[in-house]
Specification:
Helices cover 24% and strands 30% of the residues. It contains four helices and nine strands; from the N terminus they run βαβαβββαββββα. The two termini are 16 Å apart. The structure holds inosinic acid and magnesium ion.
């Protein structure tokens, strides 16, 4: 895998220490509240697990999966729910865990979709944020790292389903996705 990456952008250690900070902040903000952490598969599976472990207050865990890019690096803006939640969200505090916010279209869709279930609150935690790529204005409440416009892989993030198990978050060589 390493031959396909240019360089490490965010190391595993940096990710882990940032997630501890986010978990501590979230534990403080939601103390005494009925919190559900909703991970977005598959990209955020690793971030969600680490964040869940870093949250020290009672918290439930659920997952959603929505349709993604396929083997491309561009968002289609069309979303389909492939796996929905087990829990009712009515009156509960919902925190979405996403791997990266790029155009913002996925988070916009998810916010609208989940808001229909009448949660008490709805916020977003994203490990990575590429604000320069935004097409729609969305709020990211807990942010790990703001990054420039590079296509990155690792720590759950993929290109065509590969590289998710790379330990660090790495910049993919453009020749890999321009092939
Ligand atoms: P958005 O709808 O454009 O904000 O895209 C969000 C989704 O696109 C993320 O959940 C990722 O699955 C994917 N994505 C965006 N940028 C990258 C990247 O640099 N590497 C891997 N996946 C990405
Ligand atoms: Mg994703």
């Amino acid at each position: 895998m390493l031959q396909d990456v240019d360089r490490i952008l965010v190391s595993h250690e940096q990710v882990q220490s940032k997630i501890q900070e986010l978990g501590a902040q979230i534990s403080k903000d939601y103390a005494g509240k009925d919190l559900v952490l909703v991970g977005i598969l598959k990209g955020a599976a690793l971030f969600t697990s680490d964040l869940f472990r870093a949250i020290t207050i009672p918290c439930e865990l659920d997952f959603m999966r929505i349709s993604s890019y396929g083997a491309s690096t561009k968002s289609t803006g069309v979303h389909r729910v492939l796996l929905d939640l087990d829990y009712t969200l009515e009156g509960r505090h919902v925190l979405i865990a996403e791997d990266i916010v790029d155009t913002g279209l996925t988070i916009k869709f998810l916010r609208e979709y989940l808001a229909q279930r009448s949660p008490a609150s709805l916020r977003v935690a994203a490990l990575l944020d590429k604000p320069s790529r935004r097409k729609v204005d969305v709020q990211v409440d807990y942010r790990g790292f703001e990054i420039p416009d590079y296509f990155v892989v690792g720590n759950g993030l993929d290109f065509a389903e590969k590289y998710r198990n790379l330990r660090d978050i790495c910049v993919l060589k453009p020749e890999v996705y321009n092939k």
